[in-house]
Amino acid sequence: MFVDAFEVLAENYEFSEVEGPCLAFRRAASVLKSLPGAVQDLRTTQDLPCLGDHTKAVMEEILGCGRSFQVEKILSDERYRTLKLFTSVFGVGPKTAEKWYRGGLRSFSDVLAEPGIHLNRMQQSGFLHHGDISRAVSKAEARAVGTIIDEVIHGISPDVTLTLTGGFRRGKEFGHDVDFMVTTAELGREESLLPEVIDRLKKQGVLLFCDYQASTFDLSKLPSRRFEAMDHFAKCFLILRLEGSRVDGGLHSAEGDSRTWRAVRVDLVSPPMDRYAFTLLGWSGSRQFERDLRRFARLERRMLLDNHALFDKTKKEFLTATTEKDIFDHLGLEYIEPWQRNA
Ligand code: DCT
Ligand code: MG
Fold this sequence. Notes:
By secondary structure, the chain is an alpha+beta fold. It is built from 15 helices and ten strands.
């Protein structure tokens, strides 16, 4: 109940581009998720970090009357509802959603009927597959997607490997997409890997959408201080066609839906092998976990951590790592298993 309320508040601040309170509610939600059980009494939260006056007031209200009036007000607010609807489309971010809202548009049919709007390729696919993509992907579906890509990769070369990352690596039952790393031991070879994978997926007839971004990785431009910026490795954002017959227990589909396939969002990233550990750690998330780990590195250890590297500002040198554990060791932290990184 509290986490859901905090997510609504955070999202509403995000839509208004008010970053401080947005992050504060996201962190508070993470703190509550990390607890072994639900909070029944506000007194038990006294010693918890990251719960400020505003979050506590919301919790008090929910404990007292079963709901938060502030959250209810947001949920019935036309602007919030419209922005939430528009940003649920693949390829539509808060800025575009806001522009459409300001232009008086309130529904998908408004957007699609507006002659002044030119949808880019991603947004066109986003609308086309909206029903499928906005429905969560199950663990069994994620596994089936993994098998499809694994088959493709083995057709390329036996030393290309596939590693699950993202929420499913953290053991989540459902996700909004499936994230993988594709790597090869041969340095430099990774640059041409994803185009080959994409080509084979296309030939199999399972590729519904592909946005490929070639690598812009440049070691001499590191370390970078920019947070939340995407990394520079070769990557692609895909929509794949997943046949129900390939999924253990069948598709996770809407009730009464008799379709035999669904569209699934899949992200692939392909770093050079010597960047493997940093990319794996970065792409395993959660976003909040990554954020706090980077913050810890910077403030407590004078180190800069991102998906590419770990830089020690005191020694003025990069620290090498071949496993995630090496990175935790450099940071002087106990290793944290992926399933413990959800909060
Ligand atoms: N990530 C990153 N840089 C970004 C965005 C994300 O390094 N600019 C990392 C953090 C999490 C990971 O990639 C996967 O991202 P998502 O798929 O968005 O998150 P998820 O944890 O897999 O959750 P979901 O179930 O929503 O897919
Ligand atoms: Mg994901």
